[in-house]
Design brief:
With 48 residues, the protein is mainly α. 56% of the residues lie in helices and 0% in strands. It contains two helices and no strands.
Amino acid sequence: MPGKMPRNQEGQKPTSSSKETKKRLEEKANAQKGGSNKRRTEEKARRA
């Protein structure tokens, strides 16, 4: 698999900055319906 870019579950390329990581995590938290998952994702965004 040399030369292949890893992808996430949505098929996106890896983030290149912490700002982009935080943005993706916030988008994910907004889309989640379950309270526990949403809180965990929001916590990850705060730490990013």
